Amino acid sequence: MPHTIRDVQVTLTAPMGRNLVIVKVLTDEPELYGLGCATFTQRYLPVRSAVEDYLKPLLIGRDVARIEDLHRLMSVNSYWRGGPVLNNAISGVDMALWDIKGKLAMMPLHDLLGGKVREAAAVYQHADGRDLKELQDHVQAQLDQGMSHVRIRFGGGSEQTRASGEAGGNAYGGPGLGVHHPPEGALEGSYYDPQTYTRTTVEALAHVRSHFGGDIELLHDVHERLTPAQAIQFAKDLEPFRLFFLEDPFSPEDLGWYEHLRAASTTPIAASELFTGPNEWLPLISKRLIDFVRMHISDMGGLTPAKKVATIAEAFGVRTAWHGPGDCSPIGHAVNLHLNLSTLNFGVHELMPFDDVIREVFPGCPQFRDGYLYPNTKPGHGIDFNEDLAAKYPCDPKTIMWTQARLPDGSLARP
Ligand code: MG
Questions:
Q1: Of the ranges 74-78, 187-191, 387-391, which one carries the lowest mean pLDDT score?
Q2: Using an 8 Å Cβ cutoff, are 88 and 323 in contact?
Q3: In which domain, by residue range, is 147 found?
Q4: CATH number of the domain to which 352 belongs
Q5: What are the φ and ψ backbone dihedral angles of 396, each rounded to 5 degrees?
């Protein structure tokens, strides 16, 4: 007898200070359930509505085994499809169905996906600094933890921005760096100067490469904060420092510039974390314009589409580096990790350190040891969710500031 979906539940929680959306799919077998990440941290309430008000009535009573069929059903049932709200809602259910399938098969997810091709995933974290000495100390701290990959960010940056790990803020040539002279009446925001940002970042990467030598992998994220011409010049200027990758040099509105960048520079490129539409990634992969795909798995609709992208990317020599900061729940990180362990063309895993609170709310979190992330090998994702404890960490509907980046003349930039 097939197992059927009995209920679909959504929990909003913020134990890491980031608003997370967790989906639980319950079955006709009381002990059998699955968990998924549906975290669109900036707009979490409509995701809950999409799951509870629309997907749940659609899914009750359906066979949990038919993941491909259910994914297509959830994707096209609204006729208009895609976007971060609907994709995250679908992802929450999709990941939960894979969790259930793993539990039924009594296999960890990476076994279902073809089996391990490596024992653990190499990870990276961010090292930043307001001056070269601080940056150097922070890189050394990463190396002391066994890291082989380090993402470099250099510049101003408030303690709050830096502590939260949020990209942006004013850490891109912000106050304290360069000349800022906005016109009278300029609006509030997170000001940054592209010229200062690129110049100081080149100097910082030169210093790190010179001090630590050629054996560590260096990453940097532009966060789409430059004009296309500035980004191409920046990629050329960084060539001597042999980056592992330069991330998101262009905004999603400027994808046509990747061909020009490829022709001009040998710096490896990672891109696509903001993609939420069907097959936006395909031209970048099939034309070999990027070296790493970087989608956020819940924002692209879950594991089902992500594993297809990984397979297509392998055929074109493109590797995976799925987006995985603090607005990816530990369940999302576990799914990323299982996929990474079973993907030949995996590149690197973005590490989110889990503290004791997180490990209590999400028992069975992946384990970090000496530069690598190891999965829990229980069947399915290997991770559970303590809903009673999660209820003690309510979400915070605060207005998001870091996406309010402004250029020196006061105009609003892309974040
Ligand atoms: Mg990024």
A1: 187-191
A2: no
A3: 121-378
A4: 3.20.20.120
A5: -115, 115
